[in-house]
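Example record used in the benchmark description.
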Amino acid sequence: MTELRRGLTTGLCAAAAAYAATYCLLSQNTVHQVSLPTSFGELVTLPIAETVALPEQVRSGVIKDAGDDPDVTHGATVYATVSKTEQAEIDVDGGEGIGRVSKPGLKVAVGKAAINPVPLAMITSAIELACDELSYQGGIKAVISIPGGEELAKKTMNARLGVIGGLSILGTTGIVSPMSNQALIDTIKTEIDVLHASGSNPILMMPGNYGRSFARDVLGLNIDQSVRFANFVGEALDHIVASQIKSVMLVGHAGKLVKLAGGIMNTHSSTADCRMEIITAHAAMAGASAEIASALMSCTTTEAAIEILFEAGISQTVWQTIGQRIAFYLEQRTRELVDIDFIVFTDEAGVLIQGKVLRNDKARETEEAR
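Model output (C-alpha cells):
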C-alpha cells in the first residue's frame, strides 16, 4: 500500500511567508525557500512561491500543500505582508480571507483575527528569527491573508464556530497527518466550548444529520445550538467531563446509539458493529425464541429488527433494557459527573428510548478535590 503524504498546516505556511517577507524587507534580498522547525523539532523546508517588494512593505506567499489530507485549503496561497513600525514589537493580524471571531469560547478573543495561539507563536517566532539574523531591533507589523479564503470558508465549520468572513489559521505541530480523525475531534471539542461559553444548557449533541432533522422537526429543538459528534461520542463526553459541563442531551438514530448499550463509544462500523448482537441479546432476555433470535441476527438494519421485535410483542421490553444499558455505559464514561438525557429514534418508529443519567454530586465533589 502506498504511504500517504503528509501535509503542511496553514500556520506553518504563514510562518514561512512571514519570515521570507521580513527577511526581504530588512535586507532587500529575496529568499526562495525557508526552513522552520515544527513543535516536535523536525526541520521543514518550504518553497516561497513569490515575494513582492512594495513601497514600505513586502509581501511573500507560500502555496499550501495538504499532502493527501482532504483539506479545502490545499493549493491556496498563504500570504504575509510585513512593514516596519515605530513600536519595538511584533504585531500579527489577519487580512483578506482570514475570518474574525464573533463568539466566545474559542482560543482567540472575540473580534480578533482567527489565528490560533500556536500558529500565532510560530509566525511571531519566524519574524523574530529574521530580525535577529539581520540585527533589527525595531517593530514589525504582519498581516496574514489567503485570497479566496472567504469562499473556501463556506466549506468548513467556521460559521458554526463563530468565525466569520474567512478561514482560520490552524495547526499545533506544523504537519498535517493525512486522513487523521484528530482534526474532527478537535473541532467537536471546539464546538462544545463555544456552546458552553454561550450559556447553552444542556449541550445538545447528536451524531449527524439524522439526529439534527429529528431534533428539529419532531422534538422542536434548536439545532443551531448543537454539536455533531459524528462517531466520537466517547471523546465528546470526555471533553464534557473535562470542561465540567453539568448537563447534556443526546439525540441519535438507533443505528448509531444502540451500540452504546455494548459500551461502544466509537460508533464507526469499521471499529465495531454489534447492533444485531445487542438487539438479539436483549430480545433473548425478553423471551424471544431461537427462531426470532436467528431472524434478528440476519437483519442488516435496525429498522428491520424493529419490525421483528414489534411482531413478536417484545419491542417495548427490549428497548427498555437496551436503554438501561446505554444509561449504564454513559454513566461509566462520564464517571457520574454529568446529567444526560438521551433519545434514541428511527424515522419510522419515532422515539424508541427516552432515558436519563443523573450525576452523583458526591462523585463530582471527589473529582473536583483531586
